[in-house]
Each structure stands twice: as structure tokens, then as C-alpha cells.
């Protein structure tokens, strides 16, 4: 028998006054799969997550968790594990008791709840700190406790709202790798909200890109990144060279389409030094091309000129929906 999807969401809609926060959002999260809801601030990601969790009264839509229609059920009856941005832990409880709280609420006996909590703490690598209270932990450790708390519920669906947002860049990179390993171990479906493209790509099998309350593109993460369907999606995903062409049309030139050290010479202006290299602007007949150059590529610039050829077979014409 095939397993029911961890989440099947159909036509979720929610307005706040005149703001259509979510409009007809449909998506599926298979068991064992991670899906990222990705979009800029205010596009409705949290509204969708809160709607799935039962924390928001919906205007329309149907929410199924592990094959059960939970649309009419209160949050505590939906059997989802939640990790929010402000992963509020109980300050007066030990780490162990914080994590055992979920199973206890589900009427597990004290011993069984503690066993489930220990198992979850072991998964996030915090078993050693089980007797501490939250103030005795770093931000990253608190974040792990919040995750363990969601894992300990044994829910088929985990909902994570910007789970790494309160951490510095280094911790975030570390925890990202841990999370990916963890998600594959626990076998639950994960719906993750993020505005960070790299995070979505690093963690999720599938992404759903949201704009102004709607899902504008969804599919396997690598495919969505490599084949954005509109200029807005391409630009949002961080592709730099989405050049306006005619009204309503843009030309997307992926960085891989630009071959350096071949073709014509073009004037180049430096813009910024970044961790990935030097960001420059090339004055090209197609339009200004922004490129990140490695130290070796930077050395190809002579007298303010850089030789570059654009492989047009890799460039894509896209509908330009950016000004909508
Ligand atoms: N309780 C509310 N009352 C009125 N408007 C709301 C409410 N909650 C959200 N909104 C509005 O609905 C829209 C979607 O908000 P939502 O929080 O879902 O976006 P988001 O994509 O999660 O943003 P962020 O990344 O900034 O958290 C925004 O325009 C927001 O201002």
C-alpha cells in the first residue's frame, strides 16, 4: 500500500480585509519529503503555514494530513509538529521536559514521554544538555530544542517557519546540513517557510515560489532554479542577468552562458567585492551583464576591457512580469 501524502493542501485562501494573503494555494508534501514555500516578505508564506496548522480561520480550502481531512479540526487535533521563528521554549522547564511536553499532552505516560524526548534530543545531538534550562543554551541550541520538541510529537508532518532565521551565518550553514540529515532520518513530511533561496535549495526536494498570495511556480528545487518560468521568478531566485527586452519580454542570461576569454572585448566596471569574488558590470550589446569573477578571471581584465562571449543557446526569453 502506498503511504498517503504527509500533506495535501487544496485551494487554501485567506484574506485580511482587502489584503488577499493567500489565494488558491495548492500543494502536496509526500511522506519523507521536504517542500519549501519560498517568497519575499509579505507574500503569504506564514499565512499558508498557519492555515495548515489550524491557527488561522480559512476563507476556503481543504487541508489533509496523512490522509485525514483536518480542515475543521482545531490545531491540537491536527497532529502536526510546529517550529516557529520565535521558538518559545518554557523557560522554567528543563530541556528534557520542554521536549517531553508534546508527548505528555498526547497523554503519553511520564516514562514513555521522557523516552520519546530523549530519542528526539539524540537526533538533534543535545542529549548531553537535557538537564539544562533554555537560558543556559546558545541560540542554535535553543533552536535544536524547538526542533526536537516538534520531532518528539511523532507527527507525520512538520511545519517550520524560518527555522534558522535567528542564527548567524555560520551556525545557519552548520544547522542546515544537520537538518537535511535529520529530515531524511525521521521520515516525516516537512513544509518549510523561507525567504532564503539558498536555504530552500539546500534543504528542500521541491519548492513552491509565492508572490502576492499565489504560488507562481512549483516543482523539484533544482528544476525551478534552472528553469524559472517568468522574469520575476528568475530575478527573485537570484539570477542577476534578467534583461528587459521589448515590453512584456525579458532575456535571461544565466552566468554559465557567459564564456570569458573568448569573443569581443567589452568595457567593465567594478561594483563590489563579495565572498564569492568580485562583482562586475560588463557593458555588453545585450545589456549590462553582472558577473562574479574569481581572482583568476579578474586577471583577464586589461585596460578596463574583458573578453566575453554569450552563448545565446543557453539564454531564455521569459515573460517580463516584474512590474506587476
Ligand atoms: N493578522 C493579520 N491581519 C492583517 N493582515 C495580515 C495579518 N497577517 C498577515 N497579514 C498580511 O497578509 C500578507 C501575508 O502575510 P504573511 O505573514 O503570510 O507573509 P510572509 O510571506 O510570511 O511574510 P514574512 O516573510 O515577512 O514573514 C501581508 O500583507 C500581511 O501584512
Automatic annotation (TrEMBL):
Molecular-function GO term, any one? ATP binding
* SUPFAM superfamilies hit by this protein: P-loop containing nucleoside triphosphate hydrolases
Which UniProt key words apply to this protein?
A: ATP-binding, Cell membrane, Ion transport, Iron, Iron transport, Membrane, Nucleotide-binding, Transport
What residues does the ABC transporter domain cover? Answer: 7-237
Q: Which Pfam families match?
A: ABC_tran
InterPro entries, alphabetically? AAA+_ATPase, ABC_SmlMolc_Importer, ABC_transporter-like_ATP-bd, ABC_transporter-like_CS, ABC_transpr_FbpC, P-loop_NTPase
Would you tell me the protein name for this molecule?
ABC transporter ATP-binding protein
* Lineage, opening ranks: Bacteria, Thermotogati, Deinococcota, Deinococci, Deinococcales
Amino acid at each position: 500500500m502506498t503511504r498517503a501524502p504527509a500533506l495535501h493542501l487544496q485551494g487554501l485562501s485567506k484574506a485580511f480585509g482587502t489584503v488577499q494573503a493567500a489565494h488558491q494555494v495548492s500543494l502536496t508534501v509526500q511522506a519523507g519529503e521536504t517542500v519549501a514555500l519560498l517568497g519575499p516578505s509579505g507574500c503569504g508564506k506564514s499565512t499558508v503555514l498557519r492555515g495548515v496548522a489550524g491557527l488561522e480561520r480559512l476563507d476556503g480550502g481543504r487541508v489533509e494530513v496523512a490522509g485525514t481531512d483536518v480542515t475543521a479540526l482545531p490545531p491540537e487535533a491536527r497532529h502536526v509538529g510546529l517550529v516557529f521563528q520565535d521558538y518559545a521554549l518554557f523557560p522554567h522547564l528543563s530541556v528534557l521536559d520542554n521536549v517531553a511536553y508534546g508527548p505528555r499532552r498526547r497523554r503519553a505516560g511520564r516514562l514513555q514521554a521522557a523516552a520519546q524526548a530523549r530519542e528526539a534530543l539524540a537526533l538533534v545531538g543535545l542529549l548531553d544538555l537535557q538537564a539544562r534550562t533554555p537560558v543556559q543554551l546558545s541560540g542554535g541550541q535553543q533552536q535544536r530544542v524547538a526542533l526536537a520538541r516538534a520531532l518528539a510529537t511523532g507527527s507525520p508532518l512538520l511545519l517550520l517557519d524560518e527555522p534558522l532565521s535567528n542564527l548567524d551565518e555560520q551556525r545557519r550553514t552548520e544547522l542546515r546540513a544537520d537538518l537535511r540529515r535529520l529530515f531524511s532520518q525521521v521520515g516525516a513530511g516537512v513544509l518549510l517557510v523561507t525567504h532564503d533561496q539558498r536555504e530552500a535549495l539546500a534543504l528542500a526536494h521541491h519548492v513552491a515560489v509565492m508572490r502576492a498570495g499565489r504560488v507562481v511556480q512549483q516543482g523539484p528545487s533544482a528544476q525551478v532554479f534552472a528553469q524559472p518560468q517568468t522574469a520575476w521568478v528568475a530575478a527573485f531566485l537570484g539570477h542577476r542577468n534578467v534583461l528587459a527586452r521589448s515590453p512584456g519580454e525579458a532575456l535571461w542570461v544565466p552566468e554559465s552562458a557567459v564564456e570569458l576569454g573568448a569573443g569581443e572585448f567589452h568595457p567593465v566596471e567594478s561594483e563590489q567585492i563579495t565572498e564569492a569574488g568580485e562583482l562586475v558590470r560588463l557593458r555588453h550589446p545585450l545589456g549590462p551583464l553582472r558577473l562574479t569573477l574569481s581572482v583568476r578571471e579578474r586577471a583577464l581584465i586589461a585596460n578596463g576591457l574583458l573578453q566575453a562571449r554569450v552563448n545565446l543557446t543557453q539564454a531564455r526569453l521569459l515573460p517580463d512580469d516584474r512590474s506587476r
